[in-house]
Amino acid sequence: MKKLMGILLTIVLIIAASLIYDYFTVSKKEARQIAERYVASESFKWKVGSISRDRGTWVVYLSSVDAVNEITWLIINNRSGSVNKITQPMK
User: Is the full-model pTM beyond 0.85?
Assistant: First the structure.
């Protein structure tokens, strides 16, 4: 009986830890919503492209609506949701 209770307690702790982690981090869906709000605040100069995950951040590729010769990414922090924009000229 004690062994069964120990197993159940372990399962409950794993589920609780998973739910807490999900609550305090930004999901891919939330990263897309953050990027779309950013694009809207910038007068729709870009379209949200691909989203990938890299070292605790979401990297969102923005494709330009105008024929601009630059590449733009949004770096969204996985924990805080803060946004950094990186722009590089195309070669």
Answer: no
